[in-house]
Amino acid sequence: MNEKTTIEKLIQATGKEPYARKMGIRTVSLEAGHAVVEMDSSEDDGNIFGMIHGGAIFSLIDEAFQLSCNSHGTVAVALNVTVTYHRPPGKGGILRAESREIHRSRRTGTYDIKVTDSKDKLIASCMALAYRKGDPLPFLDEVEGY
Fold first, then answer.
1. Could you give the CA distance from residue 145 to residue 84 in angstroms, rounded to a whole number?
2. Which residues have CB under 8 Å from 48's CB, separation 6+?
3. Engineering a disulfide at 101: which of 6, 33, 38, 115 sits with its beta carbon 3.0 to 4.6 angstroms away?
4. What is the C-alpha to C-alpha distance for residues 86 and 57, in angstroms, rounded to an integer?
């Protein structure tokens, strides 16, 4: 299967992913080893301090990571994810996560992920390591996704 078709099917599958839909995460762009996703922050994402919950920010990071490390058409899963929260985002607005592949071998991939707010301020940064299982993505043979 060619790269363009793989990317299209991956976007289609993640668009149907229940958790991403619940969080309001949407794919902005995807190419091999690189993904950008966004979500609107809302009152529902708040923690006890009135800031966006770190779990919501992590979910955005994880979606970008999932897309970028699986963009080569084979199943990749997280081995390690290290997040640094730099500042809380302001209330409302859009949060954006961008994941870039910085190294890929037959069995692992390393990704640099940044989260910014709608003013392009750095909210969080992340280094993530994926284990590349080598199995084809399960939905590549399906016409409509899963």
1. 34
2. none
3. 33
4. 12
This prediction has a pTM of 0.93
Sheet holding 108-116, edge to edge: 26-31, 34-40, 94-104, 108-116, 122-136, 74-85
Distance of alpha carbon 10 from the chain centroid:
12
CA dist 128 and 70 (Å) reads 13
pLDDT in tens, 30-62: 999 999 999 998 878 888 888 899 999 999 999
Phi, psi at 139, each rounded to 5°:
-100, 5
Residue 86 contacts residue 137 (beta carbons within 8 Å): no
Q: What are the DSSP calls for 62-125, one per residue?
A: HHHHHHHHHTTSEEEEEEEEEEEE--PPPSSSEEEEEEEEEEE-SSEEEEEEEEE-TT--EEEE
**C-alpha separations of 77 from 62, 87, 93, 138 in Å:** 11, 28, 30, 14
Please tell me the distance from the alpha carbon of residue 132 to that of residue 146, in angstroms, as a whole number.
Answer: 21
* Strand, helix or coil for residue 144: coil
Q: Which domains does the chain have, with CATH numbers?
A: 3-136 (3.10.129.10)
31 CB neighbour count, 10 Å cutoff: 13
